[in-house]
């Protein structure tokens, strides 16, 4: 009983720079891949994979494949969570990243509806499900790499770095689409995707993911396993069936963690997919939008996402000082109020007001998303931490992210193009999250070695 590891458990074996880079680079790639698909779901896939003859129907079909990935995420969470709690974080992170990279690259070479008919949509759906399966294991592993290697008083700060991959991935993906769209622009249709873009230009961001995956794999293969997991192995704490243990003994954490993420997910996808759709829809369309050219609105979105990145980092020190629960309660109340501003700000027709709306929404996004990198992992002990946090995070993706774009488009059409009901939908999701947080204990001082 006297034998102990040579280094104290509070000292990480990986250097801070290695931990930050490994947790950041993987999620950046994963979110880049997801955003590339999200952008293509608005600009490309309705035309090339779902040519129904009705603009709204084609968009809903495209968003259905976007949401289908969320259904695969809990399956990926169970699979990769099992591997992560049984075999370790490092090997599991490498496997999830490789799966995502291969699926994204293959989307870039898929035939379209004009070439193979309905099979094009089927193949796109299969690749999308593979993306969701991979992302189901990615986030939790990256969060665990950050938090299990962090000093006790800086876990939330370290936990913001995998979260930072979301805004960075968004900016890279959308700026790449922007540059390609500009390079292939057709003067006859200013502001809209050209024939060359729809024919082959849209494939470039998907193919480029292969380069990013190679870089990510190189970084992650240099990691060593966290001491929390190594100690669990040494003391016989690794369980054979993490999922069964999590559901039997930690079911409350699974439920509360799932609903604690709900408002984050709904806000996340409304601020990205829905605003891009609303912002670029012509004012004279059947369901009218704001009428911005794609190239103009994407720059407005990137402007907003900068606030996402800044306030993701700001949220870490706040959550370390004031606690995860208290910080999230305040931010969630802000999200509920923000949902009431969709009509006067997003639907008001003023460009400065729309930009302020985007900056405010993405600021709230950073403040709610950042602390989750520590909050969800801290809700579970080491032997089921990967599984528990991954299942909660990804089941919430079904309730929030999978349904958000579809519900938003449906609600948008009910009131002749007004975003009123979309905003109220966000407010309702925030109220559910607020109640869940009230029922959750503070995790700031938990022993992550347990």
UniProtKB/TrEMBL annotation:
Entry-linked CDD domains: MFS_ShiA_like (cd17369)
Keyword Zinc included in the entry's annotation: no
Any Pfam family hit: MFS_1
Transmembrane residue ranges: 20-45, 57-80, 92-110, 116-135, 156-180, 200-221, 249-272, 292-315, 327-347, 353-370, 391-414, 420-439
Keywords on record: Cell membrane, Membrane, Transmembrane, Transmembrane helix, Transport
Gene3D superfamilies per record: MFS general substrate transporter like domains
Domain of life, source organism: Bacteria
InterPro entries per record: MFS (IPR011701), MFS_dom (IPR020846), MFS_trans_sf (IPR036259), Sugar_transporter_CS (IPR005829)
Alphabetical list of PANTHER family matching this protein: INNER MEMBRANE METABOLITE TRANSPORT PROTEIN YHJE, SHIKIMATE TRANSPORTER
Protein name, per record: MHS family MFS transporter
């Amino acid at each position: 009983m006297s034998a102990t590891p040579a280094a104290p458990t509070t000292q990480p074996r990986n250097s801070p720079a290695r931990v930050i880079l490994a947790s950041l680079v993987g999620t950046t790639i994963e979110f880049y891949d997801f955003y590339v698909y999200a952008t293509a779901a608005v600009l490309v896939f309705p035309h090339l994979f779902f040519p129904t003859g009705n603009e709204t129907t084609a968009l809903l079909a495209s968003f259905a494949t976007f949401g289908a990935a969320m259904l695969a995420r809990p399956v990926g969470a169970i699979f990769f969570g099992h591997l992560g709690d049984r075999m370790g974080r490092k090997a599991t992170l490498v496997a999830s990243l490789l799966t995502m990279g291969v699926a994204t690259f293959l989307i870039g070479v898929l035939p379209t509806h004009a070439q193979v008919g309905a099979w094009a949509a089927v193949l796109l759906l299969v690749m999308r499900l593979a993306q969701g399966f991979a992302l189901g294991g990615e986030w939790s592993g990256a969060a665990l790499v950050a938090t299990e290697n962090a000093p006790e008083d800086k876990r939330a700060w370290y936990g913001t770095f995998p979260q930072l991959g979301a805004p960075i991935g968004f900016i890279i993906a959308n700026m790449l689409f922007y540059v390609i769209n500009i390079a292939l622009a057709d003067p006859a249709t200013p502001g809209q995707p050209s024939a060359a873009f729809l024919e082959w230009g849209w494939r470039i961001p998907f193919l480029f993911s292969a380069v990013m995956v190679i870089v990510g794999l190189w970084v992650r293969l240099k990691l060593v396993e966290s001491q929390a997991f190594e100690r669990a192995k040494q003391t016989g704490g690794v369980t054979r069936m993490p999922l069964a243990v999590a559901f039997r003994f930690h079911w409350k954490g699974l439920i509360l963690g799932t609903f604690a993420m709900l408002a984050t997910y709904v806000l996340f996808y409304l601020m990205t997919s829905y605003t891009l759709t609303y912002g670029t829809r012509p004012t004279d369309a059947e369901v009218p939008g704001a009428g911005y050219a794609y190239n103009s609105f994407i720059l407005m979105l990137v402007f907003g996402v900068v606030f996402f990145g800044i306030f993701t980092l700001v949220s870490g020190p706040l959550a370390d000082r004031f606690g995860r629960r208290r910080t999230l309660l305040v931010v969630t109340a802000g999200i509920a109020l923000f949902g009431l501003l969709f009509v006067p700000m997003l639907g008001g027709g003023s460009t400065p007001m729309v930009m302020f709306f985007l900056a405010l929404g993405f600021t709230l996004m950073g403040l709610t998303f950042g602390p989750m990198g520590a909050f969800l992992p801290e809700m579970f002990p080491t032997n089921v931490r990967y599984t528990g946090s991954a299942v909660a995070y990804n089941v919430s993706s079904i309730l929030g992210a999978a349904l958000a774009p579809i519900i938003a488009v449906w609600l948008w059409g009910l009131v002749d193009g007004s975003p009123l009901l979309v905003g109220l939908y966000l407010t309702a999701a925030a109220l559910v999250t607020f109640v869940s947080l009230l029922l959750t204990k503070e995790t700031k001082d938990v022993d992550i070695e347990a």
